[in-house]
Design a protein that fits this description.
Chain B: One of its GO terms (biological process) is DNA-templated transcription initiation. Chain B: Belongs to the sigma-70 factor family. ECF subfamily. The complex is a heterodimer of chains A (312) and B (174). Chain A has four domains: 37 residues, no CATH class; 43 residues, no CATH class; 146 residues, Jelly Rolls (Sandwich); 73 residues, Phage tail protein beta-alpha-beta fold. In chain A, strands 3, 4, 7, 10, 11, 14, 15 and 16 form an eight-stranded antiparallel sheet that branches. Chain A has a seven-stranded mixed sheet with strand order 2-5-6-8-9-12-13. Helices cover 29% and strands 34% of the residues of chain A. With 312 residues, chain A is α+β, with helices and mostly antiparallel strands. Chain A has eight helices and 21 strands. The longest helix of chain A is centred in the first third of the chain and has 22 residues. Chain B has 174 residues and is mainly alpha-helical. Helix content of chain B is 67%, strand content 1%. In chain B, helix 1 runs antiparallel to helix 2 and helix 1 packs parallel to helix 3. Classes of the chains: A alpha+beta (312), B mainly alpha (174). At the A-B interface, helix 1, helix 3, strand 1, helix 4 and helix 5 of A face helix 1, helix 2, strand 1, helix 5 and helix 6 of B. Strand 1 of chain A pairs antiparallel with strand 1 of chain B.
Chain lengths: 312, 174
């Protein structure tokens, strides 16, 4: 009976044959049900919308979209633009940089995400990454190809599983053993904060530390300092403020310069003192006061320049 | 790739051939025409944004997969209530030939709509794609990523459930 019904539904046997095989009464019921549904449509719309709305202005929000849909579309467009940029760059080095006050999200060729803090730059070699992706596709477990990016400044990374991933900067290398972490590279050292998973950070002198989720380490003036327990789950600069815990003034000053696009003349001020606190990312006067007044450091602002001097 | 989805006329052609079928697929799942339309539009926006990465013969798959993902991401466990309209080219005497369920035509339609709405989701979607959108079982199998045998099984189970359901109402009436 199942067999017959199935055959009839596929059009392999006729209504008459179905009646013969399963009885006229049952067959007529099936014929009536299917005959009715065959004549249904959800509505009589011919076209839902004009596709030109999409093709003529790919970045525009379409008016009927719900708010969450526009976010999703924006994210997709961002990724599409980034991949396009990646495709058209002829040179084998790909780089992205941000200006003062700008935060940019970049998708790496393997789908990992890098979020650049203000005034930072990352770059990578396209050819090396091609090998990485090819190796991944061929399922070879050699892992000879490494995912590498170079950093100037600060970046947050959400790394996809795969071959070794590392971030190189002037002061050292950070290799991923896990997922979400941030590297802040400044003149006299670098700071690593790991939000998820684990990373290994190796300084220029080859000394290394393993940084687990919720931990931070500072390499400053040639040595690793004690572990810092993080109480935040994502970088403060994504929330429009920057937090420092026992950070050298050089690191804080560098951050100020990048955030606000200023240059700071340190003069004879001792910048190895430590600062703990939060500064806003969009109010320079508040930020300067917050950082320098506790140390009794005088500061004078002249356009894009800030001149420091020791107070009394 | 000769015909790229990034060319407007190619994209528009794909749009014309799939818009209603994607919308209907979502409607069978959601029971909400307006939401189905919004999700369909979003699926086409995503197709356009990814036009360079999606081969022309994969456009249909991309659309249905995206539609399904949108449905899963925003599924709100509401009971589905489906309403349909009759095709305009329907022949007048069709019902009179098959008077097995002895209701007024409109009543029969309503009872059947309720019974269809109450079908398990997979059965409902596959059955309606087959009967309303006239998809071949092979096409449904591809779209839903199930075997052709499973498609056949869903369709005949759906029809049997509908008949049993209407039989029951019929018996209660007498």
């Amino acid at each position: 009976m199942d067999e017959n019904l199935s055959k009839w539904l596929k059009g392999e046997i006729s209504n008459e044959e179905l009646k013969e095989r399963i009885g006229s009464e049952e067959a007529l019921k099936y014929i009536q049900i299917v005959g009715e549904v065959d004549n249904w449509v959800p509505d009589h719309t011919e076209h839902l919308f004009d596709p030109k709305e999409i093709t003529s202005k790919p970045k525009a929000k379409v008016t009927t979209m719900r708010p969450w849909l526009s976010y999703a579309a924006a994210a997709v467009i961002l990724i599409a633009v980034v991949s396009y940029l990646w495709l058209i760059m002829g040179d084998s080095t790909v780089s992205y940089s941000t200006v003062a006050g700008e935060v940019q999200e970049v998708e790496l060729p393997d789908g990992s995400k890098a979020t650049l803090a203000p005034n930072s730059e990352i770059s990578w070699d396209k050819n090396t990454w091609k090998e990485v992706l090819a190796e991944k596709a061929s399922l070879k477990s050699k892992k000879s190809a490494k995912r590498q990016i170079k950093l100037k400044g600060k970046v947050l990374l959400a790394v996809k599983k795969g071959s070794p991933f590392s971030v190189e900067s002037v002061n050292g290398v950070v290799e991923v053993l896990g997922t979400v972490f941030e590297v802040d590279d400044f003149e006299s050292g670098f700071n690593v904060r790991c939000f998820e998973g684990k990373v290994r950070a190796t300084a220029v002198d080859q000394s290394s530390v393993i940084v687990a989720g919720g931990e931070g380490y500072l390499f400053f003036e040639g040595k690793w300092e004690d572990k810092i327990e993080l109480d935040e789950t994502s970088p403060d600069w994504l929330q429009n403020q920057t937090k420092f815990g026992n950070a050298p003034l050089t690191q804080v000053i560098k951050t100020l310069e990048k955030l606000y696009g200023i240059t700071v003349e340190k003069g004879s001020v001792n910048t190895s003192r430590r600062f703990t606190g939060r500064i806003p990312n969009d109010k320079l006067d508040v930020a300067l006061r917050t950082v320098f007044s506790p140390f009794k450091i005088n500061y004078a602002q002249e356009g894009k320049k800030v001149i420091l001097s020791e107070g009394n | 790739m000769k015909d790229s989805l990034c060319e407007e006329h190619v994209f528009h052609k794909e749009y014309i051939s799939h818009e209603l079928k994607v919308r209907n697929f979502l409607f069978y799942k959601l029971g909400d025409l307006e939401k189905a339309r919004d999700f369909t539009q979003e699926a086409f926006i995503r197709l356009w944004n990814n036009c360079a990465k999606v081969a022309l013969n994969k456009a249909k798959g991309f659309l249905f997969t995206t539609a399904n993902r949108l449905f899963l991401d925003h599924y709100d466990h509401k009971k589905v209530v489906l309403k349909f309209e009759h095709r305009s080219n329907r022949s007048e005497n069709q019902m009179e030939q098959n008077p097995e369920f002895l209701y007024e035509e409109e009543e029969f339609k309503q009872r059947l709509e309720t019974a269809v709405s109450d079908l398990p989701e997979k059965q409902r979607v596959v059955f309606l794609m087959s009967r309303i959108d006239k998809y071949k079982n092979r096409e449904i199998a591809e779209i839903m990523d199930i075997s052709i045998k499973t498609v056949e099984k869903h369709i005949s189970s759906a029809v049997k459930t509908l008949k049993d359901n209407l039989d029951e109402i019929d018996n209660l009436k007498i």
